[in-house]
Specification:
The complex is a heterodimer of chains A (135) and B (305).
Chain A (H helix, E strand, L loop, with lengths): L1 E11 L2 H17 L4 H20 L4 E10 L2 E10 L7 H4 L13 H8 L2 E7 L3 E9 L1
Antiparallel strand pairs in A: 1-2, 2-3, 3-5, 4-5
Helix pairs in contact in A: 1-2, 2-4
Chain B lengths: L4 H28 L2 H4 L3 H24 L14 H17 L3 H9 L1 H13 L3 H44 L4 E4 L2 E7 L4 H18 L3 E8 L5 H16 L3 E5 L3 H10 L7 E3 L2 H11 L4 E2 L5 E2 L8
Parallel strand pairs in B: 2-3, 3-4, 4-5
Antiparallel strand pairs in B: 1-2, 6-7
Helix pairs in contact in B: 1-3, 1-6, 1-7, 3-4, 4-7, 5-7, 6-7, 8-9
The chains are: A alpha+beta (135), B alpha/beta (305).
The complex binds adenosine-5'-triphosphate (ATP) and magnesium ion (MG).
Chain lengths: 135, 305
């Protein structure tokens, strides 16, 4: 269950914003006491999704939420944009698939770096990617 | 509006140019007596004011002669000289640390002296005065805003230049040993930065004829697919120049993350630390480090330590 006090929304409009997102996520996971490896995984996943939001979604937002389930603590990130959407999510998740000039590894890589991963996307409406990682 | 607004305005300017200049300089001295004047000499201020007034008069006269009255468009060709002068003034003010307001005030402060003279010349005819003041104020507002636009742009240019300089400063290519270069990267590796790194590295490879380049990413906090792609491109470009790259500073957490991302670095030599990479580079160039009394790098190729 989310702890409502630990929620924060950041814009993703420029590449500087992407840097800010990485820094905010690093702060959050450090505060939660994540190990260095887990911190790095979450920050890297956030970096991938923030760049996709900017590059393909035409900009959007990310919400950071601190999670607490019993003794477990975690961080959930929700990336949202009102861009063109992803016509075939399974395909987008395939390693090496890109419609841009990237390596096509970001989305699939982010999924492998976290504990929970969900993409909702509708063509012409936008894309939402929710990820969570527990300590 | 008055039909001959431009003509009258031009006449007043021409007839009273010297006195308007005196009044204006006095106004500026009074207004800016403290802060802003400190950075400008009285002589410089007077010179700038005289020059602006002269150019302004010429533009207004030209316009009046062309028979254009009423609305003035300072973007037009007749105003090139005025705009050019103001652009130069704004840039130098921006460099000297003036604020945009202080810069625009140079133009706006002319109003008081100018309106006083227009009023005197109008001889109590309120309609005429209104038309003239309206024309003068529209004109000076446009020119004042123009200084702000130029000011803003030149500030942006200064910042962009500083960023560029910083970027080059923060990506030094150092010669570690004969034939071995190192590039310690610090901070975010975005596309622009990669371009600079790649260019300076390739140039250094040519200049020094180095066979090995160590790219140290100890100072790069996050290695995602974009950073990986940039690194791989740099390695590939160096390879085309005949140099082999070693990427150092791959911490354990970074190594794990890269594997999860699915990035394939198997074609690149990687090392945990710069020291390890240096050792590997020495080996690859047929040298090694010996311990003991005569400690140093073996083989005669390198410079004496
Ligand atoms: N928010 C989004 N909106 C629209 N399309 C998206 C979005 N995110 C991803 N995609 C699509 O999914 C594809 C795969 O994304 P992925 O992040 O895996 O690779 P990439 O961004 O192209 O390259 P890399 O992340 O390796 O630099 C993208 O090329 C794009 O077509
Ligand atoms: Mg991506």
């Amino acid at each position: 269950m989310a702890d409502p006090s630990g929620s924060e929304t950041l814009p993703i409009r420029t590449s500087t914003d992407v840097v800010q997102v990485r820094q905010a996520v690093r702060r959050a996971v450090t505060q939660l006491g994540f190990s260095l490896v887990d911190q790095t995984k979450m920050v890297t996943a956030a970096s991938e999704l923030a760049r996709n939001t900017l590059e393909y979604g035409g900009g959007g937002t990310v919400r950071l939420e601190t999670l607490q389930e019993g003794a477990r603590r975690g961080l959930r990130l929700t990336f949202e944009d009102q861009g063109p959407g992803i016509p075939d999510v399974e395909r987008a998740l395939t390693d090496g698939y890109t419609t841009g000039s990237g390596m096509g590894l970001g989305l699939g890589g982010a999924r492998r770096l976290v504990n929970e991963f969900a993409v909702t996307s509708e063509v012409g409406v936008g894309t939402r990617v929710v990820i969570a990682r527990w300590k | 509006m008055a039909q001959n607004g431009a003509g009258r305005f031009a006449d007043v300017l021409a007839k009273h140019e010297a006195q308007i200049l005196e009044d204006w300089v006095a106004d500026q001295r009074r207004a800016g007596g403290g802060r802003s004047l400190g950075r400008l000499s009285e002589a410089q201020m007077r010179e700038e004011a005289a020059e602006f007034l002269r150019l302004l008069r010429q533009a207004v006269q030209q316009q009046a002669a062309a028979g254009a009255g009423g609305e003035t468009d300072t973007d037009g060709p007749g105003w090139d000289a005025v705009r050019e002068f103001l652009a130069g003034l704004s840039r130098s003010r921006a460099r000297q640390g003036f604020s945009p307001t202080e810069t625009a005030a140079f133009v706006f402060s002319l109003k008081q002296a100018l309106f006083a003279h227009l009023a005197r010349e109008a001889g109590g005819d309120a309609d005429v005065l209104f038309a003239e003041v309206w024309q003068a104020t529209t004109l000076l507002d446009q020119l004042g805003l123009y200084t702000t636009t130029v000011f803003q742009k030149s500030r942006e240019e200064v910042i962009a230049r500083q960023q560029e300089e910083l970027m080059e400063l923060s990506t030094p290519v150092v010669k570690l040993w004969d034939g071995i270069l190192a590039v310690p990267l610090i901070g975010t590796l975005d596309s622009a930065r990669t371009q600079v790194v790649m260019e300076s590295l390739l140039q250094a490879i040519v200049d020094t004829g180095s066979a090995i380049a160590i790219i140290d990413i100890t100072g790069v906090p996050t290695v995602d697919t974009l950073v990986s792609q940039h690194l791989l491109k740099t390695v590939a470009a160096a390879r085309l120049m005949g140099a082999e790259c070693i990427i150092s500073g791959i911490r354990p957490q970074i190594a794990q993350t890269i594997v999860h991302l699915g990035v394939d670095l198997s074609q690149v030599s990687t090392k945990a630390s710069l020291a390890d990479a240096f050792l590997l580079a020495l080996q690859k160039t047929g040298r090694g480090i010996t311990r003991g009394a005569g400690a140093g790098v073996t083989s005669g190729a390198g410079p004496a330590a």
